[in-house]
Amino acid sequence: MPGTFHNRRRNDYNGAERGSDGMDREILLGDEAVGLGAIHAGLSGVYGYPGTPSTEIFEFVERRTAPSGLVHAFWSTNEKVAYEEALGMSWAGRRALVCMKHVGLNVAADAFINSAITGTNGGLVLAVADDPGMHSSQNEQDSRYYAQFALIPCLEPHDQQSCYDMVREAFDLSEELQLPVMVRLVTRIAHSRAPVRTAPARQPNELSPNRDSRRWTLIPSNARVQYRDLTDKEPELLRRSEKSAHNHLDLASTSGVIACGIALNYLRENLDGRDDLSILSIGQYPLPVTKIRELVEHCGEVLILEDGYPMVESTVRGLFGLAGVAVRGRMSGELPRTGELDPDLVRTALGMEPVPTPREAVADLAARPPALCTGCPHVDTFKALNEALSDFENPQVFSDIGCYTLAALPPLEAIHSCVAMGASIGMAAGAAHAGYSPAVAAIGDSTFAHGGITSLLSAVQQSVNLTVLVVDNSTVGMTGAQRSMSTGETLDSVILGAGVSPEHLRVIEPLPRNHDSNVEVIRQELAHDGPSVIIARRACLEAIKKLKRKAS
Amino acid sequence: MKHDLILAGVGGQGILSIAYVLDNAAINAGLTFKQAEVHGMAQRGGAVQSHLRYSDQTIHSDLIPHGRADTVLSVEPLEVMRYWQHLRPQGWVVTSVTPYVNIPDYPDEAVLLDQLAEFPNLVLVDSGQLAKAAGSQRAQNMVVLGAAAPLLELPERYLVAHIRSLFAAKGERIVEVNTRAFALGQAAGRFFRGLVDAGMDPVPALRVCQKMAPDTIDPDRAAEWAAALAQDRARLDVVLAAEAPWACSEIPTFAR
Fold first, then answer.
1. CATH class of domain segment(s) B2-171
2. Which residues of B touch A369 (CB under 8 A)?
3. Would you call A18 and B86 a contact, using CB atoms and an 8 Å cutoff?
């Protein structure tokens, strides 16, 4: 059943009774504005895998459309599956929104890149939320490169209103160009609320499958034709960027600024009525070459503001720089090379004096990092693991992405890697191949479904000597207790189906009173020469609360 | 008008509930707003903050620049210390003094309070005590919102209306607990300011507030209390040493 754990969020702003001021304005997070824009564009399916800061896009669509049941909304196993499902919906002629965080697009990249080659039928919009500053991520990769790589258009909103407007526009663009269209968000838009004006909704498309199988069958003879068709669209994409209202040029003095997406807000915040700067704001890619040339030819210096990689800056600068024009930004040192942009950094880069404050920031203030909840089952699991591994000298545990990654921090300090969804099992296997023992992987139930199953299958086929600890808390905990694809009996069957022998699939209940017996089980399986899996099974407390709230 | 506010606290303390009330009150007041918040990993017991800006003009940045915040409103005293650079020189700090200790190196509470007390535009409330009096420890966020209410440039009736709408689904008892927490916070905050404005130092003023029976706190009595205790440590000690809480109306008279 879709959305077993779902409930209206406690602080739900949406709906007539909550903060809505008339029919045409709603209070929305940037993520929610993306979701509502898609619904109003005539959406038939929303797809995704939870990941901060993108999760609320899917959740909003799911919540909002649940009463009508007109939009298919069921979390996918991972981003690749989500993207493929969305592409299938598009093939069938209906509109699909697929949403994920930036690193999720790495997982979906195979389907994503090739969907530009096949082209689309019903509108297909990819909403991807980047995380500059790595608030909740392992890198700050910039998805605009992916759009450029796939040769598709990318829209970059600068506020909540443009999230809504651009997603509607992206569906039109997708259907006109027969291409997937990316909408690129950053954390600060995704998770910021503001009133958004909405427009009347349109109807979803009828079912109208595209049966031109040559388009969809990318054997080399077809793919060469399709790829040429894709590159033939490049001039049209550029033409649309040049005339787009999202790419706006105002010429004034010879001091120029290019502001992409949210950077425009930080620029305007600091202008305070200043109107001397020549400003090009960018919200649609590929880059509007003519407008950039116009700005550059007018200006002796250009400051480039973008939240993410210095993509525009490196393009404008080129390999050898621009003769007679100083290009400034993250690469030249006016702005930090890494991290999230903010109004203060932009102010400094503009050469303006800092605003006085009554006190300086306090140095060496005690940090308050996130921590596992009191009573969390992971705490009992990792205490048992730590004790079982204490027989070894400086044991290392490969781990994965989820709440349990917090076990890397004191006081547990139980895990020693976190690289990519599902990477724990593959890395433990590789270390075992190299002769490392004991090779231990710790992974959550949902992460296992997302990216661990294939690695386990591979390890079992090779009879690798490794121990996999699946921490089954029945939910996707870190992102707000979404439905897990492989928990409970499903998880057991998947593991046995991958070929793990039943006597080496052990289930423990992580509770303080079971500590000694749990340590013993882990010790036994560490001693086993071959693949074994221990499931530490106890439900997430937050998920239980959520279920209770729903029940009441 | 324009009001920029940093909401601070620890994940789970209800920062976003405060934001909900203010966002909707701002809309009722005919303003627009932007409100940036923290989701995901940091919500698990970590330091969280929300930048909330409301104005009758266009708001550009979702983030409040350094030196621009009118108010820092914190449900936890240590968390205030992270945002000094955001405050404008004449800005205000409204904070709970009830510590949320979930880290091993939490600073000494007395030292922390002294550091806060050095800042002149300050409102201190014991949100733990007042929320308990209101009926639930979970209502500390509404206590601090109440204490800040006189500074927020939003009509109180809108704030109360949206406290009610926020908790309506949980039943009338929870609504009452939270509106009471708001009222107690407001009274205590004004009483605290009354004592300070009448010449008391912030920490003794806080201690006097904490000795009051919460339901009896009357901000209009603050000047009389301050006068009764004026410049006299011994009198303050007598008040603080009393076992039972004081009724705010029973201002002690001290023999000369």
1. alpha beta
2. 46, 103
3. no
